[in-house]
Amino acid sequence: EPEVTQTPSHQVTQMGQEVILRCVPISNHLYFYWYRQILGQKVEFLVSFYNNEISEKSEIFDDQFSVERPDGSNFTLKIRSTKLEDSAMYFCASKLGPTGYTFGSGTRLTVV
Amino acid sequence: SQQGEEDPQALSIQEGENATMNCSYKTSINNLQWYRQNSGRGLVHLILIRSNEREKHSGRLRVTLDTSKKSSSLLITASRAADTASYFCATDALSNAGNMLTFGGGTRLMVKP
Questions:
Q1: Which listed site, A11, A108, B65, B81, has its alpha carbon 20 to 30 Å from B56?
Q2: A55: which chain B residues are within 8 Å (Cβ-Cβ)?
Q3: What are A's interface residues with B at a Cβ cutoff of 8 A?
């Protein structure tokens, strides 16, 4: 069964450093998303991406965040200057149309 | 107040029993989805029910949707120890250009062998 692949599974970074979280969505999917889950809290929407542009973003997705689909297969989330409160599990997801999502297994980001 | 709130927050049952989890939401929706998450792992899509549907089945899962009460329930029949996980409802709101989901806080289900 097709999967959404996320790398790395765990990343530790120093506060203030830039991180790039990588995702390979399912190849024929058209809609791409990033969500995050702070430990013990709800899964929160960050951003949706369709037709090579952001279609919607949440209040969390401020100027420190950016997304890119550089080559038609990868979908990346960049955090420019990480803060302690960015520590969370980050999930990438994709879908083809009005269906359920396929989520990746997540990247656990720890900011120290 | 939050879209997509589940209750109970935690549920502990014996293997073989049925587990029922409920979800309430606030806004009008296109559809409601249920996801499962094993501890520290990714989200697995279980079932999607559209706003014009009232009930849906998938294997041992049964989902109901009452749009007049803005609520949904997930029933797992004949539970197994392997069903131990957190279960989340998530709503795709009607006014939602990006089709993003709003998740509830989840129900932690423990099935004892």
A1: B81
A2: 97-99
A3: 31, 33, 35, 41-45, 48, 50, 55-58, 89, 91, 93, 95, 98-106, 108
Looking at CA atoms only, how far is residue A76 from chain B in angstroms? 17
Q: What is the pLDDT of residue B1?
A: 33
Nearest to A56 among B42, B47, B97 (CB): B97
Q: What is the pLDDT of residue A71?
A: 85
For residue A50, the chain B residues in CB contact (below 8 A) are: 98
In Å, how far are A15, A58, A108 from A39, measured between CA atoms? 18, 19, 10
N-to-C CA span, chain B? 36
Contact B105, B3 (CB under 8 A): no
Q: Per-residue confidence at B4, pLDDT binned at 50, 70, 90?
A: low
Q: Give the closest residue to B7 by CA, choosing from B80, B111, B105.
A: B105
Give the Cβ contact number of residue A7 at 10 Å: 12
Beta carbons within 10 angstroms of residue A56's beta carbon: 17
Tell me phi and psi for residue B19, to 5 degrees.
-120, 130
Task: Return averaged pLDDT per consecutive 10 residues of chain A, 112 residues in all.
Answer: 91 97 94 93 93 91 94 92 96 86 94 97
pLDDT value at residue A25: 95
The Cα A32–Cα A21 span in angstroms is: 14
